[in-house]
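Fold these two proteins, one after the other.
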Amino acid sequence: MTVFKTYIKVLLSSKFTVILYTVMLIIFGILNMETKEVGTDFTSTKPDILIINNDENEGITKSLIEYISNNSNIKEIENEEDKIADALLYRDVNYIIYIPKNFRKDFLKGTNPNIEIKTTEDYPSQVANNLLSKYIEVAKTYRSHINNEEEYIEKIEETLKTNTEVEIASSLDNNSLTKAKTFFNFSNYTMLAGSIFIICLIMTVFNNETIRKRTIISSTNYKKLNRKLILSNSIFAFTLCIIYIIISFILVGDTMISSHGLLYIINLFVFTITVITISFLIGKLTNNKEAISGIVNVIALGSSFLCGSFVPIEYLPNFVTKIAHILPSYWYIKTNEEISILENITIETIKPIITNMIILFIFTIIFIIITNIITKRQRTIA
């Protein structure tokens, strides 16, 4: 109770800094969400697809290309990686299909050749993926029953004719979900920056040499003290989290009272727990109040740029996204991206989301363990 009272006292003594910094972060977050253009809106009822055919244009290969062409907008782009990458970046295409050499011969033999794809991972690309998957699945079904290729293709096309027209009839409100995703992605920066700044500011008081020595000679176990401080730090972090959730209801609207909205909220709560332990660990490592702003810039800004908070992660180079995997922010933002494209929410479809949240909990445990080790070492040195 003494630790908690002291924490509240220090928090209240810094209330103007807390209020000023929190308000600045919230305003920045709102402006970012309001001014950021929605990049996933589209007016076409068909996905934009680029097909790069490395096989001969006949038989099953020709049939596949015709089926995709009849149910999508086929784009013509030079087969150069730079131009293809630009097409994905600027959403000139949603989906790229690379048909491999000898696809027709290998498929008819039953070897199931690999068709490589590149995708923008938005809703139109899902439609494109469904088109490709549907043709391949139907083709596999009849392959072992019909030996003549012409009859085989006729049967495939006859089956597919029952549902050849593709309309994007999604029940999702893509506009609102994109708005929510943008808001919660940006909250990666504000949650990190706000929590690290305030928690570290408060922790410098507890790290004061005089107070630290009094704590060491007392009967208080360092693990117990850390637990109390983490719980106290949670007050500010979860208050900031709740403020963000309230603002999301105001700005995003009815989407936040849906299943998608609930998943966004749960993801933010899980991330907040991780942020608390990150902030607490950093607070244990520094006693310098002047250094806190620099730490905020390095960690909060760095994580946000690397993990897709400011720039969508699909626009970032591959080596950057590989580095981002070691940061908790990557898994938080990845979950937001996955929530935004969920058509149906079931146990199966949210498995990747649950996996991402488990990874965040693993990060939390790691940070707690490291903090306890550092605390024990500091007590030994003192």
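Now the second one:
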Amino acid sequence: MKFPVILICVFLLPVWLPGLQAEGYSGVSGTGFPPVPGMSFDSLSIDIGRIDEDGEPVKCVFRWKNHSGAPVSVLMVRTTCECLVPEFSTEPVAPGGESTVTFVYHQKGHPGKIDRKAFVYTGLSSGSPTAVLEVKGTVVPSSRPVWQYRYRMGTLLLRQTMVRIDGKEKQVERIACMNDGDSGLSLSVDSSALPECFSFRCEPAVLGPGETGDIVISFDPGKVRDSLLDEIPVILQGLDESAGDRTLKIKTGESREEVLSAYPERKQ
């Protein structure tokens, strides 16, 4: 007697599934969360295709409908990456009504394939998301990742504008930089204005358009002639900026402010 019952269930399963989806089951396979009836989306996954890392942020809109017998409000939306920013209304949606959950994807700093999840919480379920949404695509890496550099001196971008020398032994410090201009950039300093114990160079000597490199500052304690100042300015040459806007700093001695002082006041 059990055999016919099993056969009936198997043959009716394809018929039941569309009915469940129409009623608003909105789980996503592989997320570990079961579907919750009462809220359905026109799509649970959006593929944004190939986008440039240097391009404008991309907007994705998920439309949903209330299939329950009572008003439904979106209470909270959590995402697996802060690069995916949700926008939604918390106003109740009446039975049969529709609304949207929108996401803005900020791709800078996230090259390669993306697969971000978003968990939508409503009053339809307690403790678990009512729906799990997905944004997929590919971010084409930037040829000039300017977002990696906090500071700008004309066409020269830098990750920091200060180095610290303890003054006790030979030391070499580097500042990562990039040429954001359309022509080669050759950097130097007025050696007569720099104490003999310090030396300056740029690797490579000439930064091509879009090329990255290092500003290298070396210290030799054997060449110290007088006591070192607490702060020594290094005015760069080769930039069309005023002296104050193309100055690096060498701070000497030990300091607990070393981490913070790597990010001085002038930003992009």
